[in-house]
Design a protein that fits this description.
The complex is a heterotrimer of chains A (about 575), B (about 220) and C (about 325).
Chain A: H1 2-6, E1 9-16, H2 34-38, H3 43-71, H4 82-118, H5 126-148, H6 162-166, H7 171-198, H8 211-243, H9 256-290, H10 297-310, H11 326-354, H12 363-386, H13 388-394, H14 398-428, E2 430-431, H15 434-460, H16 475-505, E3 507-508, E4 554-556, E5 572-578
Antiparallel strand pairs in A: 1-4, 1-5, 2-3
Helix pairs in contact in A: 3-4, 3-5, 3-16, 4-7, 4-8, 4-9, 4-14, 5-7, 7-8, 8-9, 8-10, 9-10, 9-11, 9-12, 9-14, 10-11, 11-12, 12-14, 12-15, 14-15, 15-16
Chain B: H1 6-10, H2 21-56, H3 58-65, H4 70-95, H5 99-129, H6 148-181, H7 191-215
Chain C: H1 2-8, H2 17-48, H3 65-94, E1 101-108, E2 111-115, E3 121-123, E4 125-129, E5 133-140, E6 145-149, E7 154-158, E8 164-169, E9 174-180, E10 193-198, H4 200-210, H5 219-229, E11 255-257, E12 263-265, H6 268-276, H7 299-310
Parallel strand pairs in C: 1-5, 4-10
Antiparallel strand pairs in C: 1-2, 2-3, 5-8, 6-7, 6-9, 9-10, 11-12
Classes of the chains: A mainly alpha (about 575), B mainly alpha (about 220), C alpha+beta (about 325).
């Protein structure tokens, strides 16, 4: 990839642009007011709007989780009826997956950081970007409508024929909401791919692309290829309820297992939509806080693509006991193990990056360490579930619940929190309280493990998932898990409080508080409306810590992006930028 | 990447975040191509369902296909292919700066798309008249097969979704026509015509698959 | 190893449970070793290479092919071992011997029916012989269910439009619980069944006498037994509380509003109709989800249940 483009070498006059430590204006001070925010096409503000929305949904999903954990304190009914409990876990799952996990990193952090890391002014289609946000909002409204008009109790997977015939409530509004939501995800992915292909700053070749962008690129590919299949599946399901078209309903001659194939064809790759951007964040943070070149750049970059690719071929491992042929099970099991390899490679590479580094255990780095520990457990238990004979026993038990929470919360949410802390100074221009950051990270870690470790044990002991009543022998584990969830909730609440506090009372953040070499840190904190006051020129990779900082602050001499223009140094020089 | 020349900076179609017209054009085109990929996967789900049910009930598809009007299906195929040609000619006209050509070709395309929809409308009403409704509302008894409703569910889903795409295409084309009349497009800038054309070709191609799969089963 | 099994797995009571457990333990132990290694490396590096001054520089190490190949190939070998082992075990789990004793299992919302070769049907109660292969042939009457016996390490979905099967050979007599593990609605977590493993002689005796009527029971007593055994209580309470269906408390002779707005008095005919064709006259405010008992209860049993319901004031 790099060679094909490096044939096209241009000589450009560049000079150094030091990031302005005291910018007179930034994207937050310009275009103020509610209407300006609601109609903005600025990727940074759209990123914030997403961040606000997903934070709300994370809170809602989290409260639902606490409610259902509380219900499970006793084996029989504690507070809720069985139907209410079924709605709770359905909404918890659906909200967390579709409204938090899928858009969290790409749409919130990705939107904010991607153009900054590329050194461009905005994503390729800013209006489409705004449109995708409003599509997300419309999808969310449908979901809220579903909740207030009877709720949904199908589980977030909407398995037929239960969802198409037996389930009460307003399944149609819910599936239609998620159907709409899919287009938001598709448009974000589309936007990112085009932006990464077409909008890179001079000199930013594929081999200098930050790993966060490689990860977003892989994610976007999955988004555009998998999400349409979910869309059509949910549309068919909606039609099934509306017109009884009979595609999935056995009573009308359809096939419920076909639904499962369709659903997991999206939803398994969707797992990688959720986790792969997290991998990208980890790469960024671990290199910055080890102040060291990332170990195995290409291995990490390409393993993201490998995961994206193989991830499309493993959906059948959700259906090992659904009556698939054993040949299909053989193939799906084998491919499932193959996904483990690129994932393992990443973990080893990250740890190797720490070797001989200069490691600063600030909050983002602590989250990375928590991520590495928890995600490794999530990965190993995934291997366990991929082993056919064992999966027969573990399928649809709490073991599976614990496994995907280790991957999704222990992996993805930790990476998200790491990234949020890492980029917080850039996004807000304020530093959060480091001590509270570390304390709440520790609380989250303890709470998380207390919640989900017992679930591995009760799962393998035979406790099925989605159970309102359970046998008394499991109560000890459930009680432990419930108390753990309270601690976990407390940890998240603390994060919310001190981050919010920092916006108003936090110390002013320097442009590059972590002394990172990545492009986004060469813009002021917070960045101006169009990100850079100049057209950046990139001659080194984002992890080249052996090169002096001054060589990462180059821009086209005489260029300015239409804002107040600041003179720093008059010395210019010529570089060869391969592009 | 070249520095933006002052001339290009002044072009009013160039959005602020692009360096030059080329970048904007290439981005838009790539965006549309990616969108078309998602469209193919979107219909792909239906094609997968089609394959599954055809392999389950092969005789049903033979029986039910007879009840579709091959003649009008073929006419519609010709209509859509012609409209693909005219939309390509509209792009060509834009490249050659022929303002009138753009307008005329777009107008013909819209007219053909309408013809397609009208024929579709008559096909549907004819089906509804005998009780061939989608899914649970199916009441027709002329097909000796228990699952006859499934074929028509798939038929209505596929052609219905395709029809929605045609309607969206008509909307886009009308918008283009209005802009073309104001002289917005030239050989310098015809991105919207180009990418709408791409979209229209896809709509056409999907029909070219639907027609034999649904009408021409023997 | 055994301690780990005891802690994390239920008792192994089928012939292949031991194999499954061995693989479970193998993956656990290997994972634990690797996890400890990784954790130690992270903590050690974080301590050893902690930042000592703000202007520290680090060596440039971009990659190391030998190392990277090593840590790609070793996990690959490990997962291929696990894959092969797991698939081998799976083949044992899915290939039932020809001489297996077959039992038909039907999942209904929310009970399990077990049909034996004698024609006898037990509800929420499965009896099998020990030391003999048993094959369960599953299907569902409505939505997808899944039959799970943890002690045997077996599980299989029961689907509404096709048959699936699983088999096992119990190693010792005993009692266990069967779970439904595919979410199927309100009373999903009540869709449990009792599994009784008998010695072969006991099983034969049971099978021969299961059908026999206990003449000593009065109709109402028999009805009480049936109501408990047939899974009625999953949805109908005896104490007046509302579950998925109307409570049995004081049910006989009461006026009941139906879904179509009409009102009926609950008499023998209504009760009989509700057992055989439950969804023809559904009580207002309740979903039409009750499975039909036509074929699995004979006239005498239905009479007994009606007699029992009369006694519930």
């Amino acid at each position: 990839m790099a060679t094909s483009e490096s044939t096209n070498i241009k000589k450009i006059q560049v000079r150094r642009f030091k990031p302005d430590e005291n910018p007179t204006s930034n994207y937050l001070t310009e275009e103020r007011g509610l209407w300006a925010w609601m109609t903005t096409v600025d990727h940074k503000k759209i990123g914030w709007m997403y961040l606000g929305s997903i934070a709300i949904f994370f809170a809602v999903g989290g409260i639902l989780a606490l409610l259902l954990r509380t219900e499970l304190l006793t084996p029989a009914q504690t507070f809720f009826t069985a139907d209410a409990y079924n709605q709770l876990f359905t909404l918890h799952g659906a909200i967390m997956v579709f409204f938090f996990l899928v858009p969290s990193v790409p749409a919130a952090l990705g939107n904010f950081i991607l153009p900054l890391q590329l050194g461009c002014k905005d994503v390729a289609f800013p209006r489409v970007n705004l449109l995708s946000f409003y599509i997300y909002v419309v999808g969310a409204l449908f979901t809220l409508f579903a909740i207030f008009t009877g709720g949904v109790d199908t589980g977030w997977t909407f398995y037929t024929p239960y969802s198409s015939s037996a389930a009460g409530g307003n399944v149609m509004a819910m599936t239609f909401g998620v159907f709409i939501l899919g287009f938001s995800s598709i448009l974000t992915g589309l936007n990112f791919i085009v932006t990464i292909h077409r909008m890179r700053a001079p000199g930013l070749t594929w081999n200098k692309l930050p790993l966060f962008l490689w990860a977003l690129y892989a994610t976007s590919i999955i988004q555009i290829l998998a999400t349409p299949v979910l869309a059509i599946t949910l549309l068919l399901l909606t039609m099934e309820r509306l017109l009884s078209i009979g595609i999935f309903d056995p009573a009308l001659g359809g096939d419920p297992v076909l639904y499962q194939h369709f659903f997991w064809f999206y939803s398994h790759p969707a797992v990688y939509i959720m986790i792969v951007p997290g991998f990208g964040i980890i790469s960024e943070i671990i290199s910055t806080f080890s102040r060291k070149h990332i170990f195995g750049y290409w291995a990490i970059a390409l393993s993201s693509l490998a995961i994206a690719f193989i991830g499309f071929l493993v959906w059948g491992h959700h259906m090992f006991v659904a009556g698939q042929s054993s040949l299909a099970n053989l193939v799906f099991s084998f491919l499932t193990f193959l996904v483990g390899i690129p994932t393992g490679i990443k973990i080893f590479n990250w740890i190797a990056t720490m070797y001989k580094g200069s490691i600063d255990l600030k909050t983002p780095m602590l989250y990375v360490m928590v991520f590495l520990f928890l995600f490794t457990i999530g990965g190993f238990t995934g291997i366990m579930l991929g082993a056919l004979a064992v999966d027969i026993h573990l399928h649809d038990t709490y073991y599976v619940v614990a496994h995907f929470h280790y991957v999704m919360v222990g992996g993805m949410v930790m990476a998200f929190l790491g990234g949020l802390h890492y980029w917080w100074p850039k996004m807000t221009g304020k530093m959060y309280n480091e001590m509270w950051g570390r304390i709440s990270c520790a609380i989250v870690f303890i709470g998380f493990n207390l919640t989900f470790l017992p679930q591995f044990v009760m799962g393998s002991l035979g406790m099925p998932r989605r159970y309102f009543n359970y046998l008394e022998q499991f109560q000890g584990y459930h009680v432990m898990s419930t108390y753990g969830s309270y601690i976990l909730g407390l940890g998240f609440l603390m994060v919310l409080i001190y981050l919010t506090h920092s916006i108003f009372k936090g110390k002013k953040a320097p442009a590059n508080p972590w002394q990172s070499r990545a492009m986004e840190w060469q813009a002021p904190s917070p960045p101006p409306l169009h990100n850079f006051e100049h057209t950046p020129v990139i001659i080194h990779g984002p992890y080249d810590y052996h090169k002096p900082m001054s060589e990462f602050q180059l821009g086209i001499a005489g260029s300015h992006n239409g804002h107040g223009h600041h003179e720093h140094e008059t010395e210019t020089k010529t570089v060869e930028a391969d592009k | 990447m070249e520095q933006p020349s002052t001339l290009e900076k002044k072009q009013d179609h160039l959005q602020h975040h692009f360096v030059d017209s080329d970048q904007q054009f290439e981005s838009a085109k790539m965006g549309m191509w990616i969108f078309l990929v998602t469209e193919i996967l979107f219909f792909g789900g239906l094609f997968a369902a089609y394959i599954v049910f055809r392999s389950w009930y092969p005789e049903l598809f033979l029986l039910a296909s007879d009840h579709l009007d091959t003649f009008w299906g073929a006419v519609n195929t010709v209509v859509l292919i012609s409209s693909s040609l005219t939309v390509a000619m509209a792009i060509r006209s834009a490249q050659l700066n022929q303002q009138k050509g753009i307008i005329i070709n777009l107008a013909i395309t819209i007219a053909l798309a309408f013809v397609f929809m009208v024929i579709k409308y008559f096909e549907y009403t004819e089906k509804f008249a005998v009780g061939i409704f989608p899914g649970g509302y199916y009441t027709y008894e002329g097909i000796a097969h228990d699952q006859a409703n499934i074929f028509f569910s798939i038929y209505y889903m596929m052609t219905g979704l395709h029809g929605i795409h045609v309607v969206v295409g008509i909307g886009l084309m009308v918008w283009l026509l209005l802009r073309a009349r104001k002289g917005h497009f030239s050989s310098e800038y015809y991105t919207p015509v180009e990418i709408t054309g791409l979209y229209w070709h896809l709509v056409d191609i999907i029909w070219i698959f639907l027609f034999p799969l649904l009408y021409l089963i023997d | 190893m055994n301690r780990l099994s005891d802690f994390m797995l239920p008792d192994a009571r089928s012939t292949f449970a031991g194999d499954v457990d061995a693989l479970f333990n193998f993956i656990n132990v290997v994972s634990l070793i690797l996890l400890i290694g990784i954790t130690i490396a992270i903590i050690y590096f974080a301590y050893k290479y902690r930042r000592k001054s703000e202007d520290e520089t680090t060596p440039l190490i971009t990659h190391n092919s030998k190392l990277e190949i090593t840590w790609s190939v070793i996990p690959l070998i490990l997962v291929i071992i696990v894959f092969g082992w797991g698939y081998n075990g799976y083949l044992n789990l899915t290939t039932a011997p020809d001489d297996a004793y077959e039992i038909r299992v039907v999942g209904k919302s929310w009970l399990w029916e077990f049909h034996y070769d004698t024609g006898f049907v037990s509800v929420n109660e499965l009896h099998v012989p020990a030391n003999q292969p048993v094959k369960l042939i599953l299907s569902s009457d409505d939505v997808i269910h899944s039959l799970f016996i943890p002690e045997f390490r077996v599980k299989m979905d029961a689907l509404p439009n096709r048959y699936t099967s699983l088999w096992f050979e119990a190693t010792e007599p005993g009692e266990m619980t069967i779970y439904c593990t595919e979410y199927c609605g309100s009373a999903h977590s009540n869709m449990l069944a009792d599994l009784y493993v008998h010695s072969q002689e006991d099983f034969q005796t049971w099978l021969e006498t299961a059908d026999a009527v206990d003449e000593t029971l009065s109709p109402a007593e028999l009805g009480q037994q049936l109501v408990q055994r047939q899974g009625c209580l999953a949805c109908h309470s005896l104490d007046g509380s509302t579950l998925q269906g109307p409570s049995f408390e004081g049910i006989f002779g009461r006026d009941r509003e139906l879904q179509d707005g009409s009102v009926v008095t609950i008499d023998e005919n209504y009760l009989r109709q509700s057992i055989i064709e439950p969804n023809t006259q559904v009580a207002a405010g309740f979903p039409a989800i009750m499975p039909s008992y036509a074929g699995s209860l004979d006239d005498r049993q239905i009479d007994a249940i009606i007699e029992y319901l009369k006694t519930l004031d």
